[in-house]
Automatic annotation (TrEMBL):
Keyword match 4Fe-4S: no
Protein name: Tripartite motif-containing protein 3
Pfam families the record matches: NHL
Keywords of this entry: Repeat
Signal peptide: none
């Protein structure tokens, strides 16, 4: 892990509840709170161990993440991925109407053709179904993972469905975009197509999204979205209340043109964000705090990502002609 590329994306000091002006935050290991410079000084006079954010997470992250596999797949321009079971995954490409089931050796197990180009996919938590969006038809589809049978679940009206996420409840999160009026929103639907919750504006009536692209539900029911136009990752609570936005850690000036694509979450509450332009994956905490960049420059044009039950990260590369999925171990 490159220590020069670790840092903190600022939120607020949990001791004084003030957003700090400086570029550094601290962490009190005894009280388990984030600290600004002023509160760090007061804590230092107490019998507390105060460390930097980098030191806080060094104990949990491998110093040198391991690229355990590079899987050459029978399709290129990879766009999204979903775990299908041990050593198997579903894959879709931006240049094909088929969704393929691939094993960890790159062998095709199953290929199912959709009616038109699918954009994103999501695997149900029981892995029995694969949901995907078809923007050209404004439809959300469902595929039976065993038989490959495809059914249309519902239409999204005047909105193009882009990203899709599967909730533990069985409901679906769909990123919607209106190209005419140039705005987007995220809607939670039942599988029958009944809208359960629409997320569009914050408490000040400002638009939260412009063009939401990928979406996941976290372990607390919060909804995390990457927005292509805003170049931000945005988290709202399970009730749709805005929590934070992450801008690629601009304050550190390590990356330019932050381009968030696929997002995933692991068992420790980390969010992982594919940065397509900068050929890396950002790791941020569930409160928006930046932790580290993962394998900087060793991933080519990452798009869809997912995390398996062993907390291994699976990354689609869009920039490779042969269609490569990389499997990365990064947690101790």
């Amino acid at each position: 892990m490159d220590s020069e590329r670790q840092g903190q994306h600022h939120l607020e000091c949990q001791a004084c509840r003030v957003i700090p002006k400086g570029p550094v935050q601290w962490y009190c290991k005894e009280h388990k709170i984030d600290l600004c410079d002023n509160c760090k000084s007061s804590h230092a006079s107490k019998p507390c161990e105060v460390v930097t954010y980098k030191e806080k997470f060094q104990e949990r992250l491998m110093e040198n993440p391991v690229m355990s596999k590079e899987i050459k797949c029978p399709m290129s321009f990879l766009r999204d991925i979903g775990i299908a079971g041990k050593d198997q995954f579903w894959l879709l490409s931006s240049r094909s109407e088929t969704i393929k089931l691939i094993d960890s050796n790159g062998k095709e197990i199953k290929s199912v053709k959709a009616s038109a180009q699918p954009m994103r996919l999501a695997v149900s938590h029981d892995q029995k179904s694969v949901f995907f969006t078809v923007p050209s038809e404004n439809h959300v589809m469902k595929m039976d993972a065993k038989s490959g049978k495809i059914t249309r679940l519902f239409s999204t009206g005047d909105f193009e469905p882009i990203g899709i996420g599967s909730c533990r409840s069985g409901d679906l999160l769909v990123c919607l975009y209106n190209s005419k009026d140039i705005f987007g929103k995220v809607v939670k639907y039942s599988q029958s197509g009944q809208p359960i919750m629409e997320i569009e504006r914050d408490g000040s009536k400002r638009s939260i999204y412009t063009k939401p692209h990928y979406v996941i539900e976290n372990k607390n029911g919060g909804i995390c979205v990457s927005d292509y136009s805003k170049r931000e990752v945005i988290l709202v609570a399970d009730n749709g209340e805005f929590q934070f936005s992450y801008d690629g850690n601009k304050a550190r000036k390590v990356v330019e043109n932050f381009t968030p694509e696929g997002i995933a979450t692991d068992s420790r509450g980390n969010y992982l964000v594919a940065d397509h332009w900068n050929n890396t994956v950002h790791i941020i905490k569930e409160n928006g705090a930046f932790v580290s960049y993962l394998l900087f420059g060793k991933i080519e044009g990452p798009t869809g990502i997912t995390v398996d039950d062993e907390d291994k990260l699976w990354v689609c590369e869009f920039g490779t002609d042969d269609g490569t999925v990389k499997v990365i171990s990064y947690l101790k």
